């Protein structure tokens, strides 16, 4: 989903996990190399640039809130085509975020809970479809 919906904890976690994913994609780290969400980026023509575009969206939101994420850590650059995101996957991730935010930040939850149709991260283009096959719903 769009980074503007992420509470502070989720935004920081997303940045850290994105940097880890970048290290895995660029082969400088072996950690989490089989993480299913990496399939989104590995399927791109330029995975590192696509991940860079994703991280740029995260760091831009951090900048807007006055946080200081190290933009220079982003390794991939350039224009990339949008990544298709199934509407079912976006709905699944939105529901997951709401549950987490409700438990840890009542004020942030009150701010976003009434949103019925959240926007996707700018890198993604929402298309009809179910949750991804690699997703492990609980």
Question: Care to describe what's here?
Answer:
With 138 residues, the chain is mainly alpha-helical. It has one domain. Helix content is 48%, strand content 6%. It is built from 5 helices and 2 strands. It has helices at residues 8-25, 38-42, 47-64, 87-104, 106-112; strands spanning 83-86, 124-127. Strands 1-2 form a two-stranded parallel ribbon. Helix 1 (8-25) packs antiparallel against helix 3 (47-64) and helix 4 (87-104) runs antiparallel to helix 5 (106-112). The chain is globular and about 40 Å long.
Q: What is the residue-mean pLDDT, rounded to a whole number?
A: 92
* DSSP E strands, number: 2
Report the major sheet.
2 strands, parallel
Number of domains: 1
Distance from N terminus to C terminus (CA atoms, Å) equals: 19 Å
| Helix share, percent | 40-55%
What order do the SSEs take from the amino end to the carboxyl end, as H and E? HHHEHHE
User: Which band does the percent of strand residues land in?
Assistant: 5-15%
Number of helices: 5
Which parts are unreliable, with pLDDT below 50 for 5 consecutive residues or more?
none
Give the overall shape, derived from the CA principal axes: globular
What topology, given as strand order, has the largest sheet? Answer: 1-2
From the helix content, strand content and strand pairing, which structural class follows? mainly alpha
> For the CA atoms, what is the radius of gyration?
15 Å
């Amino acid at each position: 989903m769009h980074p503007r919906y992420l509470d502070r904890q989720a935004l920081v976690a997303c940045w850290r996990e994105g940097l880890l994913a970048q290290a895995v994609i660029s082969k400088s780290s072996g950690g989490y190399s089989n993480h299913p969400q990496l399939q989104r980026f590995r399927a791109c023509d330029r995975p590192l640039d696509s991940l860079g575009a994703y991280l740029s969206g995260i760091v831009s939101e951090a900048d807007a809130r006055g946080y200081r994420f190290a933009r220079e850590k982003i390794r991939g650059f350039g224009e990339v085509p949008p990544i298709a995101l199934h509407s079912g996957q976006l709905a699944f991730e939105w529901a997951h975020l709401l549950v987490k935010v409700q438990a840890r930040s009542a004020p942030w939850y009150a701010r976003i809970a009434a949103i019925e149709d959240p926007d996707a991260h700018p890198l993604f283009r929402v298309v009809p479809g179910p949750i991804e096959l690699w997703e492990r719903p609980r």
